[in-house]
Write a structure and sequence with these properties.
There is one protein chain. By secondary structure, this protein is α/β, with parallel strands linked by helices. About 40% of the residues lie in helices and about 15% in strands. The chain is built from 20 helices and 13 strands. Strand 4, helix 6 and strand 5 (about 150-155) form a beta-alpha-beta unit. The radius of gyration is 22 Å and the shape is globular. GO terms for molecular function: glycosyltransferase activity. Keywords: Glycosyltransferase, Transferase.
Length: about 475
């Protein structure tokens, strides 16, 4: 029988906030259950993630490793938010340079120095029982094997994405080379499925993930090397079977190892935002479920042209909206949106539309009674938060990575509408396309009902806590 004694777990995410935040949430959940957790990142990222809650600090500590310099990588860049998409490969190359310092950290039995007193009693002074790593650092596995430490991968993308990507042996048996190859379901899915990319620009992005980037290694090569290493004992997903029916057992079969849900790993919703911010005051004045919240994430490759067509669409729709606008890096704009938007736009939508380029308390906006829909890029974190936590129907505008697959899955469950694209090759869309999707979502009671039903099934708080408990049981069993 597996021991139920407290564990020492090292948690080490890839350098993107969409990864670091759920990894940190898992760390907090483990610490709340009495386990010692060492969360590893770089100094600037650790500072931006904020302080560990005081009640968890005896069992959760943050250890930082200095990211090495790499030619071509901007000075001070430590996350994907700090670099344009074409530089992310260089960030991976710098990340690979953390192998030696991470090996030193593990060799010191998880200690960043002399550990005594409270930290020793919490379990930090002993060798880690587990390393929870991301898709990107397959070099952790040989280090773990040398020190006889079990490893688990935490994947923050949907299970369906990795089912679609498939294991290495299936890809060798059924090679996919062109973008068109990714526009139909793979042959290893044994039941009828629409799991594929609809548009060429999305398929081209995922096809590129199979090719080496500036780091010298492909993203899929990193994942396959880690997933097939003997030190990797299990895969955990930021998901649950209610959100993705049939996918967990298929993933386990394809990769021949336990694949378990970690739940949604959403940060606490009670403590975000300023209680008297102007944004929330404006929402307080709007009718119930009347506002479309618009946010396309921090790293979607949005252009100035996209911004202007999105603005046209919001104006044409006639809907109330609150737009958290992040100016595209190529625009040179920082905290003022005026030069990005069509002439006279803000004047014409005054009273029914608000554009914010600064900080927006997103969780509180999504949970506000005036918010009736979420126009999103369909990143998995945003989908979990908007649809599964708050039951909002989605207006979907996917760009890259898993977003197209997520949009298809949400549409199939009747909980959202995707914006039509004028050109599937480059993903361009018009204001009319945006307006049509917004009007349809805001008018369709069935879509709103479907979204709320998904919230009831997937967003059950007690069940989400149970997933963490079951994950801990797996960590006890397979170490």
């Amino acid at each position: 029988m597996a021991s139920s004694s407290p564990l020492h777990v090292v948690v080490f995410p890839w350098l993107a906030f969409g990864h670091m935040i759920p990894f940190l949430e898992l760390s907090k959940q483990l610490a709340r259950r009495g386990h010692a957790v060492t969360f590893v990142s770089t100094p600037r990222n650790a500072a931006r993630l904020g302080a560990v809650p005081p009640e968890l600090s005896p069992r959760l500590r943050v250890v930082t490793l200095e990211l090495p310099e790499v030619d071509g990588l901007p000075a001070g860049a430590e996350s994907t938010a700090d670099v344009p998409p074409e530089k992310v490969g260089l960030l991976k190359k710098a990340f690979d340079g953390l192998a030696a310092p991470f090996a030193g950290l593990v060799a010191e039995r998880g200690s960043a120095g002399d550990v005594g007193g409270v930290e020793a009693s919490a379990g930090f002074s002993r060798k880690p029982d587990w390393i929870v790593l991301d898709f990107a650092q397959s070099w952790v596995l040989p280090i773990a094997e040398e020190h006889q430490i079990a490893c688990a991968m935490l994947l923050i993308f949907p299970v369906a994405v990795f089912v679609f990507l498939g294991p290495e042996h299936e890809n060798k048996a059924h090679p996919r080379v062109t973008a068109e190859d990714f526009m139909s379901p793979p042959p290893w899915i044994p039941f009828p499925s629409a799991l594929s990319y609809r548009r060429r620009h999305e398929a081209e992005w995922i096809a590129a993930a199979f090719r080496p980037n500036a780091s010298g290694v492909s993203d899929l090569g990193r994942f396959w090397e880690a997933a097939h290493h003997p030190a990797c004992r299990l895969i955990a997903h930021r998901s649950c079977p209610e959100a993705e029916p049939r996918m967990f057992p298929l993933m386990a079969d394809l990769f021949a190892m336990p694949v378990v849900p970690a739940g949604l790993l959403l940060p606490d919703a009670t403590d975000s935002g300023e209680p008297f911010s102007d944004v929330l005051k404006w929402l307080d004045e709007q009718p119930s479920r009347s506002v479309v919240y618009v946010a396309l994430g921090s790293e979607a490759p949005v252009t100035v042209g996209h911004v202007r067509e999105l603005a046209r669409g919001l104006e044409l729709s006639g809907a109330r909206f609150l737009w958290a606008l992040r100016p595209p890096p190529s625009s040179g704009a920082t905290d003022h949106a005026g030069e990005l938007l069509p002439d006279g736009f803000e004047r014409r939508v005054s009273g029914r539309g608000v554009v914010i380029t600064g900080w927006v308390p997103q969780v509180r906006v999504l949970g506000h009674g005036a918010t009736g829909a979420f126009l999103t890029h369909c990143g998995w974190g945003s989908t979990l938060e908007g649809l599964f936590r708050f039951g909002l129907p989605l207006v979907m505008l996917p760009f890259v990575v898993d977003q197209g697959l997520i949009a298809r899955a949400v549409a199939a469950r009747g909980a959202g509408v995707e914006v039509d694209r004028e050109d599937d090759d480059d993903g361009s869309f018009t204001g009319e396309d945006v307006a049509a999707a917004v009007r349809r979502v805001m008018a369709a009671e069935e879509i709103a009902r479907n979204a709320m039903e998904l919230r009831k099934v997937v967003g059950d708080g007690a069940r989400q806590e149970q997933y963490i408990d079951e994950l801990v049981e797996c960590l006890q069993r397979y170490r």
